[in-house]
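U., I forgot to send this yesterday:
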Amino acid sequence: MSDVPREFVFTRYPWRQGWSWLRTAYNMFKQHRAPWVLLVFSYFFLLLVLRMIPVVGPYVMTVMKPVFAVGLLAAAWNQERGGTPALRHLFEGFKANKWALLAIGVFFVAGITLAVLASSLVDGGKLLDLMSNSASLTEEQLAAGLADPALQFGMLFSALLSLPIVIATWWAPALVVFQDAGATAALAVSLRAALANWKALVVYALGVFFYGGVIPAVAFALLALVLPTQAIAVLAVALLLPYSLFFAATLHVSDYVSYRDVFHANETLAPLSRGP
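Result:
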């Protein structure tokens, strides 16, 4: 790590640390369930409002996402020092280096767009055609398209190209707000730290997949076995919506937990009045 600026020194961890990030994040969430649910719900609501802007909404939402995500980091920072997550934290990103945060959002949009466009190199443009015509396709046509091996290979190719972009932007907002990094430095250091901790990230990703994908799928399958079709939708919303909010809150807290563990290992907590 000799070529990493001193203020961006990070710690490498073994496999099990990825599970520790999720466990610690959930324990923090449990301490203030209601405030975290309200905060995360408000976060998603704001993003949804941005997405509804005609034509450019999805792009504006993605570019602005790092700015609002800083609010969740600030809430976790505050809680770790004895405070309580609050709605006012959601706008802390506007008090930080918002131009660097916006640049991270632009990088994410541009990177993912290029990764999707690159799929045409291996599938002859089938993924792009499916995405552009998906609104006019029936369920049968969509299923048939997704079953195409060439299109599946294109999706896999794009996902692999997107992976470095995703991990580069993971800790980048935290590096901007907590360590005053510029966008380029934050993205580079986030990528390098994530690659150095790839073992912990694999366990973390498996945990996210299990709790975010496997458990809801199993729960829905069990409901389908014992309940009539009309009741499944009602119970799915009643049970899975709260679970999804709990999971989303834990996941956002884990962004802060993992950042602090990697970049500020063993540091003494600063007084509450000195941070966001």
